[in-house]
């Protein structure tokens, strides 16, 4: 008998359409898989099995009556940062213990309208701040390929669940790499859409000028399908753009013959893992073999990206997290007066990385330092965007590593926040520039850990990077390797 937990999103849709299985079958298969492997992986923070089965049965009834659409009844997991009506939304934080979402995020509403079943909520770094999932208040997620290694972060639960076949697909969020980096560490596909492509209404905000929601999947085709479901303008998020969403994924089969793919010299740096570099360079050769022209490009301000990102992201985080004060949001810890109550609530509710970022962000916004840090970071951000504008004049998309290393051991970098931040060097640039980026599996290190190829494209050219990613993926078999038996 086929194991339905191994299905892709598109494969599940095909199977449901053919009558080969019901949605309830798929959901039960996932729960069996979760029972078998989640003790090891620790991806899920919350499941309501009965509700998921009821939702699946409702989808089956709709389908049986001739209603619904292609994806009616396909189950997915969502990062614990997205509001789903009547579900908890912890954001990986103690401070949100006891909170139940009163409404659906726009992406969730769109998935539900398409009949997609939410099968559970998956773990993450607290408030999406982190690169290893070790900042979750609910314990680290483990990498399905090697459980003593991190899955990446902050959407580590999303990537690990997909890699371990505990989810057919998942949603994550990406502020500085949190979809692409865990996807690469876990051997999945991860898509960060362009800024403005997907509504963030109902996403708990981390850094609002950088945040985007996107899919983590088993194939590029699945990422395109999910983007097609969640993208589009939403009056509830004024940053969402009126861009055409019809036709997302339509270019997948067009090949890359004659396309120009840029290779930025600043993305192959001293100190990066030689296996990672070798796998990415191999992938570049595969693309060349498929008919792409490889051109050298330069993104000279890359060296400023991490510093710029950690000023802007922390500044915005310090403002966004002010709402967790024990009054508007957050589990209150009483004090003698309101000020001591705020202090006690935030001291008890936030973990140390979140506190570090709030302190950093408050500092860079403070009078006297604003011009020296925040304003200057905004100017450098503009220069980073100009680097990309310039590079995209000579190429259609850019190929880079996703991260300088593959997954590392749990605890290996936790004592050194700066080292952790430097690992974001290749992903934060896309968020600063507002462009789109895709991570696709491109092989393994000699230690048998997955490596990801990053494909960056101009804003709102998701079709271009999906086309490159799909063409590469179909010429290789990395995406078919499974992390756990
Ligand atoms: N690792 C980066 C950070 O810690 C990115 C996180 C994210 O994209 N949410 O901020």
Describe the structure.
Helix 5 (156-163) packs parallel to helix 6 and helix 9 (305-320) crosses helix 12 (371-391). The protein folds into 2 domains: 4-258 and 469-480, Amidase signature (AS) domain (Amidase signature (AS) enzymes, Alpha-Beta Complex), CATH 3.90.1300; 303-380, no CATH class. The chain is built from 15 helices and 11 strands. A hairpin with a 5-residue loop joins strand 10 and strand 11. 38% of the residues lie in helices and 13% in strands. The chain has an 11-stranded mixed sheet with strand order 1-3-2-4-6-5-10-11-9-7-8, sandwiched between helices. The protein has helices spanning 9-18, 23-41, 49-64, 106-113, 156-163, 180-186, 220-230, 274-289, 305-320, 338-349, 352-365, 371-391, 417-422, 428-433, 462-474; strands spanning 44-46, 75-79, 117-122, 170-174, 189-192, 212-217, 260-264, 293-297, 397-401, 436-444, 450-457. By secondary structure, the protein is α/β, with parallel strands linked by helices. The longest helix is centred in the C-terminal third of the chain and has 21 residues, at 371-391. The structure holds glutamine. Residues 128-131, 154, 174-178, 206, 313, 424 line the site of glutamine (GLN).
Summary keywords:
Amidase signature (AS) enzymes; single chain; about 475 residues; 15 helices; alpha/beta; binds glutamine; 2 domains
């Amino acid at each position: 008998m086929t194991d339905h937990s191994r299905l892709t999103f598109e494969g599940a849709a095909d199977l449901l359409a053919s009558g080969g299985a019901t949605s309830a079958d798929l959901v039960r298969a996932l729960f069996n898989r979760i029972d078998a492997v989640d003790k090891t992986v620790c991806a899920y923070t919350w499941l309501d099995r009965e509700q998921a089965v009821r939702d699946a049965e409702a989808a089956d009834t709709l389908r049986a009556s001739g209603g619904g659409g292609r994806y009616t009844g396909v189950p997915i997991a969502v990062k614990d940062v997205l509001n789903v009506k009547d579900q908890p939304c912890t954001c990986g934080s103690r401070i949100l213990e006891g909170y139940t979402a009163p409404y659906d995020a726009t992406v969730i509403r769109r998935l539900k309208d398409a009949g997609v079943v939410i099968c559970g909520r998956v773990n993450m770094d607290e408030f999406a701040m982190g690169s290893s999932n070790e900042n979750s208040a609910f314990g680290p997620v483990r990498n399905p390929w090697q459980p003593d290694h991190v899955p990446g972060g902050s959407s580590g639960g999303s990537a690990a669940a997909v890699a371990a076949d505990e989810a057919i697909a998942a949603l994550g969020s990406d502020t500085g790499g949190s979809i692409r980096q865990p996807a690469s560490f876990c051997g999945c596909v991860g898509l960060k859409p362009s800024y403005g492509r997907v509504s963030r209404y109902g996403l708990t905000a981390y850094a609002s000028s950088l945040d985007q929601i996107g899919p983590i999947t088993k194939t590029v085709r699945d990422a395109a399908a999910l983007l097609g479901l969640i993208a589009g303008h939403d009056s509830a998020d004024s940053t969402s753009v009126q861009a055409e969403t019809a036709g997302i994924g339509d270019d997948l089969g067009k090949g890359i013959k004659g396309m120009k793919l840029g290779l930025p010299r600043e993305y192959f740096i001293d100190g990066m893992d030689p296996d990672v570099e070798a796998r990415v360079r191999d992938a570049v050769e595969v693309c060349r073999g498929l008919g792409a022209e490889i051109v050298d490009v330069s993104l000279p301000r890359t060296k400023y990206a991490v510093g710029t990102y950690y000023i802007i992201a922390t500044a915005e985080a310090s403002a966004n997290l002010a709402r967790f004060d024990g009054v508007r949001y957050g589990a209150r810890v009483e004090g003698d007066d309101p000020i001591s109550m705020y202090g006690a609530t935030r001291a008890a509710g936030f973990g140390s990385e979140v506190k570090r970022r709030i302190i950093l962000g408050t500092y860079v916004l403070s009078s006297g330092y604003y011009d020296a840090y925040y304003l200057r970071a905004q100017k450098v951000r503009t220069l980073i965007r100009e680097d990309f504008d310039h590079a995209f004049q000579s190429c259609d998309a850019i190929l880079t590593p996703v991260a300088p290393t593959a997954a590392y051991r749990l605890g290996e970098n936790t004592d050194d926040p700066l080292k952790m931040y430097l690992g974001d060097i290749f992903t934060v640039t896309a968020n600063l520039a507002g462009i789109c980026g895709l991570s696709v599996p491109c092989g393994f290190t000699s230690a048998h850990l997955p490596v990801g190829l990053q494909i960056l494209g101009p804003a709102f050219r998701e079709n271009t990077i999906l086309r490159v990613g799909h063409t590469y993926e179909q010429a290789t078999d990395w995406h078919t390797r499974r992390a756990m038996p």
